[in-house]
Each structure stands twice: as structure tokens, then as C-alpha cells.
From TrEMBL:
GO cellular component, as recorded: bacterial-type flagellum filament cap; bacterial-type flagellum hook; extracellular region
Subunit structure: Homopentamer.
InterPro entries: FliD, FliD_C, FliD_N
Protein name: Flagellar hook-associated protein 2
Annotated source species: Agathobacter rectalis
Length: 872
């Protein structure tokens, strides 16, 4: 940069002069800065609008499915006994509920002891032992506690809480109060001593519980009896008893797991059987209209989510599937791959004709050649000369093979390898459309083919098809983790039995559907019915599980690999526990005053079926039941019905969100022109107040999307989708069929002519006085309203989705050309920097000239001064 002297000799305002001389450059720079600022504001406007459109798009995604409208409301005849909420899957009607038993948490009230405060120690209570080892057992979890003579009541409370219990010592009543944190049998607790001192400490604390004291002086629930029962005459005999208990436990749990798996499969097979029969009926109906459609549909079903990007082609009586690959032919056309029955791969190339909007498909030939690439991964234009297996030459350069990585490196004059210059030799597979290749006919998009078949179904058939297909695919895809495939109740066996029944009964009276129903019902023998079998197996599994719980003390040992170090250690630990328990069985003292409420599971009967759980909450067939009190043998009723107000509100909320967005779009599109307003420069802002600047910029920002073609296109797509009609049961419906319409240009407020209003909506002053046709339709025929809203939502979802697809100019889920704008913004930044450089260069040039002038004038003044001195 030139030295910038500002008129020191000449007295000129050099800065102002230079600024004026480069003003044309500055004006050009400011032009681009203003354009960039305006672009940035436009990006912000689009981002804000896009966020709202994407939110609408996401929200209406769920509205495409019936579950969004299957809203239920429920009432209970006695709300002091239970509260009930109904989900979308809850059946309408009245059901009977009995609450036989409430879930309870385990609770212990300790005996009165002589601890005057929380700081009283065990020693002060008369405890004289050493380390007192205690065990707190809750369900399958056991935690150890160690106390000493110096431990205070506060210490005991802290240790019990750390072990997972709620505990408190009340010095007023001189008792411990202890409870489990959760209800249910599995969450109940026991506190025992794991040595003599531990049992003694519990007695001193007044929490040594052994049940009720009998007339003989024994206790009904001695906590050490369970372990002591495994004690033998010697350690070897005790170990034998323990291992026998492990074997029994394993057998019981294995049998229970098998029966539970069988029961589960049988229950799932019932739904599968009905769904399978329904699906086959739909296939047969398709073939009755057009032979072969069912085979095509079955293939498309197998493709599932991979239909997108896949092609299918008729091949005799079957279809071939071509999946999209990342490969291209030598001309850059995308390749699709088909694998035949011999596991051979075949490829076709997709050639797009953009002018005609068509795609042709050609077989390609596969060939392999040797490719040579340089260190940057670029293929050499000309192949090197192969001297021998280890040497290549390119002109006068020699490359030698390095056996460690297989690359050929340039040889330097000193004989070493230049690791920066290398050649890699590889085999490159190429695909080329044969010269005589003929356009393959009969190829179609898998997703388009699937949509065509689905659209050929009626709305009710399509709904049945979707549900049946989902059920069939879920069951057939499920895996048996316990049962072998040859088990008569495995997924494979039950699937085969149902399919065989359908096939065998297909040509008989009632058809395959009746044959499946008979199989599920037991073919006339009630006990052979799938549901009865499942219930019987579940009861047997429950009995075995309860029996296994009787030997639950060996559960941890049973989980170890026999003969492993872990098993041996666990066995020895259990041996010590059994021996200690045997000793404590007779020596431990119990507090007769301690009271224990045993943890209890809840039990209810819904429509005569018993359910149990460790809490008072149940979720059954769409109902969420919260038991509050026992009903005994009396029943209370639960009445469930369609929540018409909920459905109405769902439609209203959807329209409200749509209206908010379409109104904003309309306002942005119809905004007033900003005229000659442009973003302000810093100098211009300095001459204005903050309020004036804000007003100026708002004028511009409000007009940024005025008459924007992209915005207009999105609005049109959304409006078209909302105005579309839907055919249900042979009759066409639109929003106006349900009293939903716009107010029109003459009656609507400014920029709200595209918003929809519901006749009779009490919150809408424009239409509140009209007859509420929507609520009437929901009450009279909710299925039609739901089907209409599903299809309307689907139409709008698709319309917005099409506008949000990724292109070369825009990202996915974006309605505007964000990629293009980002590129333009970057280009502006680059251009502005270039003009700043030009301005700086010109300023340097002019300042340099002025500096030379100042220097010359300084010399001139010096010379004149010198001459003058001669005449003084």
C-alpha cells in the first residue's frame, strides 16, 4: 500500500479528492452489497416460510391414516373405583370391570425400641457384636449392608435408603417404618442377617421379622428357612441339593418359556389366519378382474420399501426385478441389476429422453480392462509400456513395483523410489450398450406399478388390504427365539397349517376363508381352538413359573455356565449362605411386635377375563385403566364411543394451521411493491434515525416475495389439493360437502380469500350462524368423514411433498431454491471482494500520485527558500 500523505504541503483535502475519484468504483461495490443484503433478507423470508410449510407437511403426515381419526371417549359408572382413558384402538360399546385386588407395596412397622433419638447407637441399644452383615432383597436383586456397634439410627436409615427402600426412624414412637418404593409382589422386600451379628443387630433395631409367633414359640415366616432347606449332612451333600434345585429350576423355566412362546404364537396366528384369508380373497378378486395382477402384487409386496428405485419386467408367467445400482455405463447412464435363478447378474441401462419425458432401457455388455491411475487417482490418458512384471515406463520415466502395496513408484537417479509419483494398476469393469441393443419393452417402475394396483381397489378394499398385509407380513417375518421350526406351534408350522387349510378349502363350500376359520376354532372340537390352546398353555406356563419361583434362590447360580470359574464361585457363595441360614434358622431372634404388609399384585377382571400386574394401571385393547378401589364381586361399567368432538377438533386444527400458512403466503404474494427502495449503505444509515431505518427496511422486506413464481406455484399446488374431490362408495365428496368453504374474494378479509371456514363454528364470526354440517356428518357417518379427510390429507401431503423434492437448485424438504441462493450469495461475496480490491488499488494509485506531487512541492519550496536566502 502506498504511503498516504494528506495535503501536508499543498494544503489539499487529498482524502476527499481520492474518494471522489474512486466513487464510480464505490458505487459498483455498493450495488453488489445491496443486492447481497436483499438476497440475504430473501433467504431469511424463505427459511421462515419453509419452516411453517414443513411443519404443516409433518403434521398432516399422520392425518393420512385412520388412526388419526379413531378418537374415542369413555365414561365409568363409578369413578371412585377406576378411571379409564380410551385410545384409538379401543372398541366402542360397554364393558364390565371388576377390581378384585389392589396392588400394594411391601410395608414394615418395626417393634418399639429404646432409641430416644436418631443419634442413638446400636451399642446403646445393647448390641455387643462386631460387623453386622445384613441383606436387603427386592425381587431378584440383593444388596448388602454392614453395620457396627457405633452405627446410629440415622446410619441405619441411610443404608436402607441406599439399598433401595423408603425408610424412616420416628423417635416419638421409637420405631422404624420401612417400605418398598413400588407396588407388587416382585417389588416386595426382606431384610435378613447374613451372619449371627447381623441377625442380632436386626433384633436390636426391632426389625427382625419372622412372621407371627406360634404357641410353640416358633415363627410362621422364618426368613432363613428357604436357604436352610437345602442344607445337608455335609458340604458335598449340600452342594448336591443345590445343584438338584438348579436342575429343577432350569427345567421349569425352560418349559415355561416354551409354553409361553407357543401360547403367544397361537394367539398371533388367530389374527394372521383371518388376515391371510382376507388377503387371499383380495388377490382372487384382483385376478378375476385382470389375470396375473395378484402375482405382480405379491412381488411388489416382497420388495416393500425397496420398491422405490426398482423396476419390474414381465418374464413369461413371472416377473423379474431390477434394482437400482450406483453403477453407470460408459456413457453415464444409470444401471439396474437383475439376479437370475443361477445367481448370475444382468444389467440394463436407463436412457432418459428429457424432451419427450420418457426413459428407454437397454441390455449392456460387461467387459474388464486394465486401468492405470496416477497418485491423484486420475486415470492415465495413455497406458504405460509394460517392460516386465515389475517395471513400467512412461516416456523416459521408469516405475518399479513395490511388493508391499503393489504400486509402481517413479525411480530417481539414485535408485530410490519417489513416493509422490506412482501408478496403480487395477482391473476396471465397464458396461456398454451393445450396438444392436433393442429398447426393452414391458419394463415399469415398481412403485408406479404398486400404486396402479392399489388405486384399482375401492377405499374399503384398500383399507382391508393395508391392515391384512401388515398383519400377514408381521407374523411371517417374526422369528422364534425359543421354539424350533419343527415345533407344531412355531411360526413356520402355524403359517403352513393356515395356508394349507386355505388351499384345501378353496374349492369347497365357503371357500378357503371358512376352512381357516374352522381350523382356528378347532374344527368342531372346542379344546383344539387356537385361543383355548393358547390360554391352556399360558396357565401351564404360569404354574411352572410359580413353581420355579419356589427355588428362586438358585436363579443366579442357574444363569452361570456350569464348570466355569463363575459357576464354582457362585456355588461356594451359595453354600456359605445355606450354612449360615441353617445356623440362623434356630439361633436368630425375632421381634414379635414387628408387623409386615406383604407386597401384593393387583387383579382385575375385564369382561370376565382375569388380568394381574404389579401396579394398579393396565393398558388393555386400547383402554388405559387406573384401579382406585376394590369392587368385590360387583362390576362397574365402562362405556366407550367415538369422540365426535375430538374428530371435529382434529379437522378444525388442521384447517387452522392450513389457513395460517395460506394467509401468510397470500399476504407475501400480494404485498405492495417496494418501488425504488434499496438496502441502505452505512453512510446512508448515519443520516437517518433508527425508526426511519427500520421503516425503510421493513418496506423492502415485506415485498421480497411479491409475485414470486415459486411461491405462486406452491400456493396453487396446495389450493388444488384442498379443492380436490374424493370418491367414497361411488359418491364424490369435497370440503363443501361438509360445510367447509372459503368466503370468496368479496366477503373475505384482505389476503384471507383462500382460507377455509366451517359452517356453524362458534369461534368463527363469519360462519357461526350457519348450520353445522361437519358435526352432523361426524355423528351420522363418521367413517365417510374420516375416509375423506384421510384422502384429502394424502392429496395435500403429496402436493407439498412434490414441491419439496430435492433438485439441482434446492435441497430436500425445501420449497425454494436454497442451493441456487447460496451460490448467488457466495458469488456476491467474491464480486464484492474483487471490487474492494479494485477500489484499494485505485486509491493506492491516486495517493501515490498525490504523494509524488507533495514531495515535488516540498523540494520546490526548499529550493525557493534556499535561493531566497542568498538575497536576504
Amino acid at each position: 500500500m502506498a504511503i498516504r500523505l494528506s495535503g501536508m504541503t499543498s494544503g489539499l483535502d487529498t482524502d476527499s479528492i481520492v474518494k471522489a475519484m474512486v466513487s464510480s468504483y464505490t458505487t459498483r461495490k455498493e450495488k453488489y452489497q445491496k443486492a447481497q443484503t436483499k438476497l440475504e433478507w430473501t433467504q431469511d423470508a424463505w427459511k421462515s416460510l419453509n419452516t411453517k410449510v414443513y411443519s404443516l407437511y409433518s403434521n398432516i403426515s399422520n392425518l393420512r391414516f385412520s388412526t388419526a381419526y379413531n378418537l374415542k371417549k369413555t365414561s365409568v359408572s363409578d369413578t371412585t373405583k377406576a378411571t379409564v382413558k380410551a385410545g384409538s384402538g379401543a372398541p366402542s360399546g360397554t364393558q364390565s370391570l371388576k377390581i378384585k385386588q389392589m396392588a400394594k407395596a411391601g410395608y414394615m412397622t418395626g417393634a418399639e425400641i429404646k432409641a430416644d433419638s436418631e443419634k442413638t447407637t446400636l451399642a446403646q441399644l445393647g448390641y455387643t457384636g462386631g460387623d453386622a452383615k445384613l441383606e436387603v432383597k427386592m425381587g431378584d436383586e440383593t444388596k448388602s449392608i454392614t453395620l457396627s456397634a457405633s452405627s446410629t439410627m440415622n446410619d441405619v436409615v441411610k443404608e436402607l435408603r441406599n439399598a433401595g427402600l423408603d425408610a424412616n426412624y420416628d423417635s416419638s414412637y421409637k420405631r422404624f417404618y420401612i417400605s418398598s418404593k413400588k407396588t407388587g409382589v416382585a417389588n416386595d422386600f426382606t431384610i435378613t442377617g447374613s451372619n449371627i451379628d447381623g441377625a442380632s443387630a436386626l433384633y436390636s433395631l426391632g426389625i427382625a421379622y419372622g412372621g407371627e409367633k406360634t404357641t410353640t414359640g416358633t415363627y410362621t415366616s422364618n426368613p432363613y428357612d428357604e436357604y436352610a432347606a437345602l442344607h445337608g449332612a455335609s458340604d458335598d451333600e449340600t452342594k448336591a441339593n443345590i445343584e438338584a434345585a438348579v436342575t429343577s429350576y432350569n427345567n421349569l423355566t425352560t418349559d415355561a418359556a416354551k409354553m409361553n412362546a407357543q401360547s403367544k404364537n397361537l394367539m398371533n396366528a388367530v389374527n394372521y389366519g383371518y388376515s391371510y384369508a382376507t388377503l387371499q380373497g383380495i388377490y382372487e378378486k384382483l385376478d378375476a378382474n385382470k389375470a396375473g395382477d395378484s402375482d405382480k402384487l405379491k412381488l411388489l409386496e416382497k420388495l416393500g420399501s425397496s420398491r422405490d428405485g426398482a423396476l419390474i419386467s414381465k418374464n413369461g408367467d413371472s416377473y423379474d426385478t431390477y434394482t437400482k445400482t450406483t453403477l453407470t455405463d460408459t456413457a453415464g447412464h444409470t444401471l439396474y441389476k437383475y439376479i437370475d435363478s443361477d445367481n448370475n447378474s444382468h444389467y440394463i441401462a436407463a436412457v432418459n429422453d428429457t424432451d419427450k419425458d420418457t426413459t428407454s432401457y437397454y441390455d449392456v455388455t460387461e467387459s474388464t480392462r486394465t486401468a492405470y491411475t496416477d497418485a491423484d487417482g486420475k486415470e492415465l490418458e495413455a497406458a504405460p509400456k509394460v517392460v516386465d512384471d515389475t517395471t513400467l515406463t512412461v516416456g523416459d520415466k521408469t516405475y518399479k513395483k513395490d511388493e508391499t502395496d503393489g504400486k509402481y513408484y517413479l525411480q530417481k537417479e539414485d535408485g530410490t523410489a519417489d513416493k509422490t509419483d506412482s501408478i496403480t494398476v487395477s482391473q476396471k469393469t465397464e458396461y456398454t450398450i451393445a450396438a444392436d441393443a433393442v429398447n426393452k419393452t414391458g419394463i415399469e417402475s415398481a412403485s408406479a406399478a404398486y400404486d396402479t394396483i392399489i388405486k384399482s381397489m375401492g377405499e374399503k378394499t384398500k383399507s382391508s388390504y393395508d391392515e391384512a398385509l401388515a398383519s400377514v407380513q408381521a407374523f411371517e417375518a417374526s422369528k422364534d427365539e425359543v421354539l424350533g421350526s419343527d415345533d407344531e406351534y412355531s411360526v413356520a408350522s402355524l403359517t403352513k397349517a393356515i395356508q394349507n387349510a386355505y388351499a384345501a378349502g378353496k374349492d369347497k363350500d365357503g371357500g378357503g376363508k371358512k376352512a381357516v376359520e374352522q381350523l382356528l376354532a378347532g374344527n368342531g372340537k372346542e379344546t383344539d381352538g387356537f385361543v383355548n390352546k393358547a390360554n391352556d398353555l399360558e396357565k401351564k406356563a404360569e404354574a411352572k413359573t410359580k413353581k420355579a419361583a419356589d427355588s428362586n434362590i438358585v436363579k443366579e447360580l442357574a444363569s452361570k455356565q456350569k464348570d466355569s470359574a463363575e459357576y464354582t464361585q457362585a456355588l461356594n457363595d451359595l453354600l456359605d449362605r445355606v450354612n449360615t441360614a441353617y445356623t440362623l434358622q434356630n439361633k436368630a431372634l425375632f421381634n414379635s411386635q414387628v408387623k409386615k404388609v406383604v407386597g401384593q399384585d393387583s387383579e382385575i377382571e375385564l369382561n370376565g377375563v382375569k388380568y394381574t400386574g404389579d401396579s394398579n394401571s393396565y393398558s388393555i385393547n386400547g383402554l388405559t385403566i387406573e384401579a382406585l378401589a376394590e369392587t368385590g364381586d360387583s362390576a362397574i361399567s365402562i362405556t366407550t364411543s367415538t369422540d365426535t368432538q375430538g374428530v371435529y377438533d382434529k379437522v378444525k386444527d388442521f384447517l387452522t394451521e392450513y389457513n395460517n400458512i395460506i394467509n401468510e403466503m397470500t399476504k407475501l404474494y400480494n404485498a405492495d411493491s417496494a418501488g425504488s427502495y434499496e438496502p441502505l449503505t452505512d453512510d446512508e444509515k448515519d443520516q437517518m434515525s433508527d425508526k426511519e431505518i427500520e421503516k425503510w427496511e421493513t418496506k423492502i422486506k415485506d415485498s421480497l416475495l411479491r409475485r414470486d413464481s415459486t411461491l405462486g406455484s406452491v400456493m396453487t399446488a396446495m389450493q388444488t389439493a384442498m379443492m380436490s374431490s374424493v370418491e367414497i362408495g361411488g359418491k364424490k365428496y369435497s370440503l363443501s360437502s361438509f360445510g367447509i368453504s372459503t368466503l370468496g374474494f368479496l366477503n373475505a378479509a384482505e389476503n384471507e380469500q383462500n382460507a377455509y371456514h366451517i359452517d356453524g363454528d362458534e369461534d368463527d364470526a363469519n360462519t357461526s350462524g350457519k348450520t353445522d354440517k361437519l358435526m352432523a356428518a361426524i355423528n351420522d357417518d363418521p367413517d365417510t368423514v374420516m375416509q375423506f379427510m384421510q384422502q384429502l390429507s394424502t392429496n395435500l401431503y403429496s402436493a407439498i411433498g412434490d414441491k419439496m423434492k430435492s433438485t439441482d437448485l434446492s435441497s430436500a424438504f425445501t420449497i425454494y431454491n436454497d442451493k441456487q441462493m447460496k451460490t448467488e450469495y457466495t458469488n456476491y461475496t467474491k464480486t464484492i471482494k474483487e471490487w474492494e480490491k479494485k477500489i484499494s488499488d485505485r486509491e493506492d494509485y491516486y495517493y501515490n500520485k498525490f504523494t509524488q506531487m507533495e514531495s515535488a512541492m516540498t523540494k520546490l519550496n526548499s529550493t525557493q527558500s534556499s535561493i531566497s536566502s542568498y538575497f536576504s
